[in-house]
Amino acid sequence: MNVNSNKYTYLFATVLVVVVAVLLSSLFIALKPIQDKNVVQEKRQDILKSVGVLVDRSESEEAFAKYVSKSVVVKNGVVVSEDPTIAFEIDMAKAVKVDVADREVPLYIAEKDGETFYILPMRGAGLWGPIWGYLALKSDGNTVAGATFGHKGETPGLGAEIALDGFQGQFPGKKIMDGSTFMSISVIKPGKNVNPVYEVDGVSGGTITSVGVDNMIRNCLQPYVGYFEKL
């Protein structure tokens, strides 16, 4: 075959594309179990971090079993499943698309230093992509013990600040209920705080991300309100 012909060029390009595609597909399939395991480990890390338990990824499974005593599924404030596997495998990205009254969400119950904590997963939208987090409540089902947030692509120095201690450290001690009234925790413009029990300062220059966190907290906590009213 004439290597200078168009036919040879097209054939070579086609074969090269097919070979590269096969190699990439094979690599993806080979690495997927490792990637899935890392995702699960990081999820456990984030859940534990919300109650102040910091562990390496490789230690997350053992620590999770030690501290998380129960994982249930809640729907409209009522426990509908006590299967920990079902609870852990709920995809919050899909769950938040369901109406609050029909949404099934996981609730993790942890025991640490003789205290009980309720850990609630959250999922929302920031400026450039998804945001997520975990909010831990004390045994009264009202007072925040800790919070952790993450993001996919928020701007460094701006919206990405939600993943840092400076922002997350505002949450301990806040409350989500005023008696039987659900208040949530509002993320407001810095310096405009008028009700510190139910408000935290947003990120300076990260208004859209701050609004996203505010909406995420309010939306994701609502399915649990009935459950905590009974405590």
Fold and architecture overview:
The chain has helices at 6-49, 60-67, 84-88, 92-95, 165-168, 207-221, 225-229; strands at 68-75, 78-81, 104-112, 115-125, 130-137, 144-151, 177-178, 181-182, 186-188, 199-201. Helix 1 runs parallel beside helix 2. The longest helix is centred in the first third of the chain and has 44 residues, at 6-49. Strand 5 (130-137) and strand 6 (144-151) form a beta hairpin. The strands form 3 sheets. Strands 2-1-3-4-5-6 form a 6-stranded antiparallel β-sheet. The chain has a domain at 69-229. The protein contains 7 helices and 10 strands. The termini are far apart. The protein is an alpha+beta fold.
What is the helix fraction of residues, given as a range?
A: 25-40%
Content of β-strand:
25-35%
What is the N-to-C order of secondary-structure elements (H for helix, E for strand)?
Answer: HHEEHHEEEEHEEEEHH
Strand tally is: 10
Q: Which stretches are low in confidence, meaning pLDDT under 50 for 5 or more residues running?
A: none
Q: What is the oligomer described by this structure? A: single chain
**The biggest beta sheet, please?**
6 strands, antiparallel
Shape: elongated
Instruction: Specify the structural class.
Output: alpha+beta
What is the number of helices?
7
Strand order of the largest sheet: 2-1-3-4-5-6
